[in-house]
Design brief:
Chain B: Keywords: Signal. The structure holds two protein chains of two kinds. Chain A is an all-alpha fold. Chain A has one domain: ABC transporter involved in vitamin B12 uptake, BtuC (Orthogonal Bundle). In chain A, strands 1-2 form a two-stranded antiparallel sheet. Chain B is α/β, with parallel strands linked by helices. Chain B has a six-stranded parallel sheet with strand order 2-1-3-4-5-13, with helices on both faces. Chain B has a four-stranded parallel sheet with strand order 7-6-8-9, with helices on both faces. About 5% of the residues of chain B have low confidence. The chains are: A mainly alpha, B alpha/beta. At the A-B interface, helix 3 and helix 6 of A face helix 2, helix 7, helix 8 and helix 9 of B.
Amino acid sequence: MNSIVEFLKRREVLLGIVVLCMIAIIGSINPNFLQIRNLISVYNDTSILIILALGQMLVILTRCIDLSVAANLALTGMVVGLLNAAFPGFPVEGLIVLAVLMGACLGAINGAFVWLLGVPAIVVTLGTMSIYRGSIFLLSGGDWVNAHQMSPAFLAIPRQLFLGVPVLSWMSLIVIALMVYITRFRPFGRQFFAAGGNPRAAFYTGINVGFVQFRAFVISGALAGLCGYLWVSRYAVAYTEVANGFELQVVAACVIGGISIMGGVGTVAGAFLGALFLGIISNSLSIIGVSQFWQMAISGAVIIIAVIANSRSEKKPGRIILREAVAADAIDESARGDTRPATGQ
Amino acid sequence: MKINKFLTTAAATLGLALSPLAMADEYRIALVVKSLGNGFFEAAYEGAQEAAAELGNVEVIYTGPTSTTAEGQIEVITSLIAQNVDAIAVSANDADALVPILRRAQQRGIEVISWDSGVAVEGRSIHLSPSNDQLIGEMNITLAAQSLRQTGAESGQFAIMSATPTSTNQNIWIEEMEKVLPNFPELELVDIVYGDDLADKSYRETQALLSNYPDLKVIVAPTTVGFLAAAQAVRDEGRIGEVYVTGLGLPSELAGHVDAGTVHSFAIWNPIDLGYAATHIAYDLLNGSATNEEVSMGRLGTGRVDHEGNVAMAEPFIYDASNVHDFADIF
């Protein structure tokens, strides 16, 4: 019984229930929403946000923040768009690899500032955000890359159906799977939690905290680069203001998903559900005929509620200084006839 | 208060006294656009340069914020006042928010005009409309009727995809569209949605339109970002031939969609001419040769000024498969 309550109290489970309720309510107002075709389309539309939120999660876990993701996305998107327009024969797979590498390099710039120079991440990424955005303008001269300038293969990849689901959605599913694997089973992934949860302790266990932060930025950048291609291809247009302000949605998805801004706390499921939540809101409100102004208000209210929930769950009743003594007490108590088996949970 | 006034006057006098010395007889005209990196405004800049080359003693400063906000434009204009330019020609992100800063510019002796998207009367001397708002509204509805005929239907539903809900020109055009609608009984307006000039939001709004109104025949988008996103969404949903997108857009951006069949026809005035005319009008004002009734627009002839300082350039031009590729290389 206790374990069920504990299970229900977990952020991911709560959020999952909220998302399901939301889908049910929207479905009851407009049954069209529940058509498989539509649900796939909503998920597909949210895929880019999910990928970016997972990258952002790693950065936030290490007590940093990456505000340059949207600008990174727009810059790599513009570069691959321009390359494709100039060399239509160049294989698109090569362009995708290039986008990921370029995004990773842009992320590495952020990471290097944080790691080697110790500049606060919010300042660095605020700066690079403007630099990347400005570079797009310098590169393109303000011109747009339009649908007819892109090669058919360039536009086709995210739209191709595999088992009835577009490749764009599959890409986000692959990223989710990779992230789960890394953050749960690889020391490489666990280090993000260690570095953010308690940097000093992490340092004493031999983890180079700055380097871990650097790696988080590189991964976030690489994913932003991937999304750069996906975005430009999906909307079939590249221009300076692509994904303007999208970084805030990405951070919001993480916060709603219970990723603690204080670092060290968060799960892939949380970030995923946070992004899905925002995606469903922005896709459904116009379908059920709610004014778009509510959209902003609802997202804002949910973010604040999520932050309050986060800070409450992180509030500790007080610091335990003598852990050994507490542990000894606990052992005493269990010896005094507590019959519950120690591994029963 | 008094000191303040004195300072303002002193600064203005100084500015007036210094400017002829500093830049001889060259006029510096600032072209302030809604945001940088928009093909439409780049084309307007091209026209402004053409006018500058014609006039000889004009330097055009092309500037604007990186995102379409009034705050960004206020910053840009503040710095232009500090640079003591001779004239500011602005396409406003907000009709009222820019008035205080533009009045300050006027107090410093700077000629202020607005073009494309207007500033309220108090904030400028002349507003150059790309066309007559009424003509644009009519044009959009005519295009919708044209597209409707393409679907083979006698009558049908259409929806409007706008930019932001506070965009001055969008709202006026929508108003004008609604006014002429009774003359087109075959068209039924079912919804107006706002894509905020963001590709992803416009795309999503289009998907919602397509799912909410299965019988929708036409989407009218008097804004380029919304137009492109709507056309792409119609294409991705496999509704080519059933739903047409039309409105105001640039040939270079829409040529692909005309080829694909998502767009039958669309209209736009020539943005090159718009920048060209705005520069000529600013020059005319600086030169003192403009009157209360007429301003020169160079090769486009003279513009008639109405009692509120509005000048209309020309009526929008229709592009379709027959001519879009000829213009796609230009703008």
